[in-house]
Write a sequence for this structure.
């Protein structure tokens, strides 16, 4: 669990990045993409978008005012993207380090025949 401070319109908020928040942000992005790709479906997904935004906002303290909500959601999405990028880079580095430190098969010297 990661706690991050976000400032929106001069107000400070504390965001708790949990697996649930990461999942909610991915879901929100997918819903935005669905609405963008098919504008006629916006009415169908707008309720899901609203519910997901409410879930994300609930991970922030203190309670978010309506005037800060849009900026907050953008900041949360950016924070999640940055953390995801850091995680992917760390995984890639770990895999690279693991390959480098992996033991290479040793060649046994041949026994000479006498």
């Amino acid at each position: 669990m990661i706690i991050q401070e976000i400032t929106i319109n001069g107000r400070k908020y504390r965001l708790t990045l949990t697996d649930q928040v990461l999942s909610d942000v991915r879901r929100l992005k997918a819903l935005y993409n669905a609405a963008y790709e098919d504008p006629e479906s916006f009415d169908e997904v707008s309720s899901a978008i609203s519910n997901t935004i409410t879930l994300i906002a609930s991970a922030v303290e203190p309670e978010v005012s309506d005037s800060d909500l849009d900026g907050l959601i953008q900041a949360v999405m950016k924070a999640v993207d940055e953390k995801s990028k850091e995680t992917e880079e760390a995984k890639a580095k770990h895999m690279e380090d693991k390959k480098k430190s992996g033991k290479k098969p040793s060649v046994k010297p041949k026994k000479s025949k006498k």
Observations:
- DSSP finds three helices and three strands in the chain.
- Residues 66-101 form the longest helix (36 residues).
- The chain has a mean pLDDT of 86.
